[in-house]
């Protein structure tokens, strides 16, 4: 297994070889962070104990704008506050999905429910602001 592929593998799979749907949830959380930051867990800036997950976690809630891709965030456009809240919620979800311990992670049903809730909050806030 190459180092690049192992960055998406849950800790329990890497250490004990245990496979479960919670391993997929872990990978999904890492992928969410990668999508919104446009940083790969294998980027040179992440070494030793400093990881993509830690970088995102340390940014919440006060300096999230420093880790999110500026093309996604673009706070100068309409609905910037709503967008920031939405992205913060997604990053919190990503952190919950990628918790170190599998029992702390959500299951995919709960992940879907959380994403649906985030979507509804965004749509509702846009309707109110019209």
TrEMBL record:
Any one GO cellular component localisation term in the record: membrane
Gene3D superfamilies xrefs: Transferase(Phosphotransferase) domain 1 (1.10.510.10)
SUPFAM superfamilies, per database record: Protein kinase-like (PK-like) (SSF56112)
Gene Ontology MF, one: protein kinase activity
Location of the Serine-threonine/tyrosine-protein kinase catalytic domain: 7-114
Protein name: Serine-threonine/tyrosine-protein kinase catalytic domain-containing protein
Source organism per UniProt: Fraxinus pennsylvanica
